[in-house]
Each structure stands twice: as C-alpha cells, then as structure tokens.
Specification:
This protein is of the alpha/beta class. It has eight helices and 17 strands. It is globular and about 65 Å long.
Length: 330
C-alpha cells in the first residue's frame, strides 16, 4: 500500500523520527523501511510535517505494522504514563493500582526497562523528588530529543521531558557565535542544543550531580569545547562574567524573580533573556515583566518580544516564558 513517507539519509533517521513524533505525525500503522542508505518513515499527514522536511515527503509502498499490545489493552483502561528514555513514569496515589499499571507496562510492547511511581513532590532547592521503583532496578536513563541525548538519574536531578518543544523553540533562535548564560542548566537540555547551534555557553547549576551529567552530556553530543559547566549559585559568579551575555536562559519558574539582578549584571549591550515563570491566569506575564524592568532600571531599554504560555501548571496557573530584549542605553 502506498503511503506518504519522509525520506532522509539513514544517519539522520533517529533525529528525524524524533521530530516527527514531536509533531505527532508518525504513522504507527506502517513499517519504517531502509533501502540504499535512505530511510523511509511513514507519516499520517504530509501537511503537518515540519516545514523543513516537507520536500522530503514521497509516496512509497509500506508494509502494515502489527498493532503493539498496549497497557490499555491489558488493563481495560488508559493509564497516565510518561516516557523518559527507557523509563516509564506513573503518577498514582494507590500503590496497588500503580503496581497493576507497572505490570501491564512491562507485559506490553512498550520499550521499557524500569517503571517508576512518583513518591513525593519536587522538593528542596535542587528540585528533586523521591521515587518508588515498581519494576526494574534503576533510575538512570538516556533521554533523546531533537537529535541530542542526555544521560541522567531522575532520583538525583530535575528533568522534564514535557519541555522538549520549548527547549527546541529557544535553541532554534540561537545564532553562531553567541555567548549564552544558562543560569539553571541541569543536565544540559538547553545548553547542549544551544552549543550545537554555535553558541559558547556558560552553564551553571547548584546541583553538583547535575553538573557532572552536564559535562558528560556535552561530551556525548560533541559540544564539550563550547560549554563551560559551573557547579554553584549563579549569583556568586565572578565579575569577569559581567556585561558578557548575548542570551540568558532563566528556567527556574518558581523563583526566577530572585535572580533578575544577576541576569541584568550578566547581560551585554544587546541581550535576549528567556524568563520562565509560574503565574495566575489573570496576569501570567505582568509579574515577570515588572521584575525585569525594575532590575534593568535606567541602564537598559526593556522590550518584551514574546509572551508565551508553555503549558498549564495547575488550575488557573500557567507556566509561561517571556522573551525579553535588554538594550543598553548609551
């Protein structure tokens, strides 16, 4: 049967497949095939394929794929699951129900080595949580997104796969030769793709274990020469970093407002700040804008270029991002 496929060099297959999955256009009913160094990835809607890949769409015969056995087919209901590398995460208060779901996940065709249940909220200044291991025996995994891979241990570092699209949005804005400060870098999900786009990145995090993973991930992705990883509070950076940044990422949405003075100190003459916040739906962008304007004072013109809702965080609360340009006044 002839179906639309994205045809790319085999070496690009995994990164392109990941992008098509993010765009929700992968055709799960037909098999991926390889011929003469080209991989053919079936898609459901050619018009929804990312714009830079549409010229690669061809019609091709593709064998039908046997439907995988899903946890929902085993359980009789659709469980809430989150994938992170080869870990599947559930979020259940009822331990018996959680273990029933874990058994179904392991019996299904989902590629999975470990099933975890959230055992606590995110806690402390390092933003980590406790986990119950329902199946398997480890909390370390390799997560892949947009052609990059990240080694991490969910029990030791904070990481949200739900922010992949947002991280890609920011990385796509980076131009070759920029100097970027990632103030709360974690294991590198912003720093690595920004470095891959040609930026030199100063990446800071209070969690020493996260910084160890960040250095490893910089090596894994071939950008170690472009990333300087620093373990510690970004507010304690020496003054040699003042007035240097072309771009700053402030992804600490519960308390980024406590770091705006540092962001302004680090900003160069023309600097874009990606400021993340969690605010009530009645005024999601106002508090962040006011905080940045107050910190900038008379030194910078402050222009809000983008007001962007990243996701719903809680009833009537949004996780938002402000893309703000600071232009030094002469």
């Amino acid at each position: 049967m002839s179906v639309p496929c994205v045809a790319v060099d085999r070496e690009r297959g995994e990164s392109v497949r990941s992008r098509l999955a993010e765009a929700d256009v992968l055709d799960g009913d037909h098999q991926i095939s390889v011929e003469d160094g080209t991989i053919y990835i079936p898609v459901t809607d050619p018009a929804a394929v990312p714009a830079d890949l549409r010229a690669s769409v061809v019609e091709r015969d593709a064998a039908e794929r046997d439907r995988p056995r899903t946890p929902a087919e085993i359980l009789g209901f659709e469980p809430s699951l989150e994938r992170l590398g080869d870990i599947v995460i559930v979020d259940e208060d009822d331990d018996e129900r959680a273990r029933e779901i874990a058994d179904a996940v392991m019996a299904s065709d989902i590629p999975c080595e470990t099933v975890l249940n959230r055992a606590s909220p995110i806690e402390g200044e390092l933003r980590v949580r406790q986990w119950d291991v329902l199946a398997g025996n480890g909390t370390e995994t390799v997560h892949r997104e947009y052609g990059h891979e990240f080694l991490l241990d969910v029990a030791e570092v904070y990481f949200s796969p739900r922010l992949a699209t947002e991280r890609h949005r920011v990385a796509e804005q980076v131009t070759d030769g920029e100097y970027v400060v990632d103030m709360f870098a974690g294991v590198g999900p912003y720093a690595v793709p920004m470095a891959a786009h040609g930026a030199d990145v100063l990446a800071c995090d209070l969690n020493e274990r996260a910084v160890e993973y960040l250095r490893e991930n910089a090596e894994r992705n071939g950008v170690a020469d472009r990333i300087t990883a620093v373990a510690g509070d970004v507010r304690e950076l020496g003054n040699e970093y003042d007035d240097t940044a072309d771009r700053i990422v402030m992804n600490l949405p519960h308390s980024a407002n406590e770091f705006v003075d540092t962001a302004v100190r680090l900003a160069g003459d023309d600097c874009v700040v990606h400021y993340y916040d969690i605010q009530h739906e009645d005024d999601p962008f106002g508090p962040g804008t006011r905080a940045l304007r107050e910190a900038a004072g008379d030194d910078y013109d402050v222009t809000v270029e983008t007001e962007h809702v990243v996701r719903s965080y809680a009833p009537h609360e949004h996780n938002v991002c402000l893309d703000v340009r600071l232009t030094r006044r002469k």
